[in-house]
Amino acid sequence: MSEILEPASLVVRRPRPASRAPEYCLDASAGHLLRLAHQRYQAIFQDRAQGLGLTGPQFATLVRLSQMGRATQNHLGRLAGMDSATIQGVVRRLIARGFMRTASDPMDRRLRVLTITPEGEAVVREGREAGMRANDALMAPLSEREREQLVTLLRRLSPG
């Protein structure tokens, strides 16, 4: 039996459904969810670190300087994940509070070097405890394996 072919002009074609791009869903946005998690962490940290009076960027700056011992302002900003304008304000406030000091580099007098003060080290010790408690509280719903996976994935998403 041979098949009868109809001319193309007689074939009724159904319109294809328009391919729609997936709609943006805020509740599935990694950026949005990271921001919410960050806000929650900051609130928990502030609660756990009452009395320190440090912002997240100030604490990160002190921790990095404590680790390094000494650093230039620009290098410290890069290590703490801040641009030059932000680190400048953070350093100015931390110096004013007596948590760090600045001096000329003995090898290059034009270069300003930052060091942490004993008061700054004391704040870092207290802040680290608060940070660990805040981190544990934030990640309490996760298993140990999930916590490790989350940190690994966040490191992959972070610059540097």
Descriptive overview:
The chain is mainly alpha-helical. It has a domain at 56-142: Arc Repressor Mutant, subunit A. The protein is 55% helix and 8% strand. It has 6 helices and 3 strands. The chain has helices spanning 30-48, 56-68, 73-80, 84-96, 118-138, 144-157, and strands at residues 70-72, 100-104, 112-116. Strands 1-3-2 form a 3-stranded antiparallel beta sheet. Strand 2 and strand 3 (112-116) form a beta hairpin. Helix 1 packs across helix 5 and helix 3 (73-80) packs across helix 4 (84-96). The radius of gyration is 27 Å and the shape is elongated. Residues 27-159 form the HTH marR-type domain. This is MarR family transcriptional regulator.
SSE layout:
Elements: H1 30-48, H2 56-68, E1 70-72, H3 73-80, H4 84-96, E2 100-104, E3 112-116, H5 118-138, H6 144-157
Antiparallel strand pairs: 1-3, 2-3
Helix pairs in contact: 1-5, 2-3, 2-4, 2-5, 3-4
Number of strands: 3
Q: Roughly how much helix do the residues carry, as a percent range?
A: 55-70%
- Give the biggest beta sheet: 3 strands, antiparallel
What structural class results from the helix and strand content? mainly alpha
User: Uncertain runs with pLDDT below 50, 5 residues or more?
Assistant: none
Q: What is the general shape? A: elongated
The neighbouring-strand order within the major sheet is: 1-3-2
The top level CATH class name of the domain at 56-142: Mainly Alpha
SSE string: HHEHHEEHH
Mean pLDDT: 88
Domain HTH marR-type: 27-159
Pfam family, one: MarR_2
Protein name: MarR family transcriptional regulator
Organism: Sediminicoccus rosea
